[in-house]
Automatic annotation (TrEMBL):
Signal peptide: none annotated. Pfam families: Methyltransf_11. This is Methyltransferase domain-containing protein. Keywords: Methyltransferase, Transferase.
Length: 203
């Protein structure tokens, strides 16, 4: 990870995805309990939204600066936080070992997102759930084409972020079953077509 991605980008994201998206964070965290894995922990902005039923949070975060920015929030939460890795594509956790997984604006940046979601499926206990709020491909073909054209340049600025990933399709491809899904625009549709929902591991 280069200097920009490790030192600069986490600070930008901490501001851009700040208080104005707290309602989406709260919706994504609703219903979590027990042991929760968060992939893309960032600066810990989801911590204040965790329900009291969460007993431990296992955090995956690639940027050292993100982890440092999170320390103030970790210090003020009652939920024990343990960093368990930096790569969502290779989780150092046992099969069927967590109750829920939380991802917020993370699936757009993981290079091998299919592998990461297979890892989510693997570590979830049966009937465990993935809670997510993401942005991705617009259902409008013209907008989606522009998203694909802009993604290479956009990704260089924002840590490999893809504008055009079909989040719902990726989740179900990994073997998870969508229980709920809401789509909505977050600002300009070309960069902010939202996917928010819950998917369950049935097997």
């Amino acid at each position: 990870m280069g200097f920009y991605d490790d030192q600069v980008l986490p600070r930008i994201i901490d501001v851009v995805l700040g208080r104005m998206v707290d309602p989406a964070r709260a919706r994504a965290a609703a219903g979590l309990s027990g042991e929760v894995l968060e992939i893309g922990f960032g600066s810990g902005r989801n911590l204040p939204h965790l329900p009291a039923q969460v007993t431990r949070l296992l955090a995956v975060e690639p940027a050292a600066t993100g982890q440092r920015l999170a320390q103030r929030r970790i210090a003020t939460t009652a939920v024990p936080v343990e960093f368990v890795g930096r790569d969502g594509q290779r989780l150092d956790l046992a099969d069927a070992s967590v109750d829920h997984v939380l991802v917020t604006w993370t699936l757009c940046t993981i290079p091998d997102v299919d592998r990461a979601l297979r890892e989510v499926h693997r570590v979830l206990r049966p009937q465990g759930t993935l809670h997510f709020t993401e942005h991705g491909r617009s259902p409008r073909a013209r907008v989606a084409r522009w998203q694909t054209r802009l993604t290479p340049a956009w990704g260089r600025l924002f840590g490999g972020c893809h504008l055009d990933r079909p989040i719902d399709e990726l989740v179900t491809k990994a073997g998870l079953t969508l229980e709920s899904l809401d789509n909505y625009r977050i600002g300009p549709e070309i960069i902010g077509f939202g996917y928010e929902g819950v998917a369950v591991r049935r097997d």
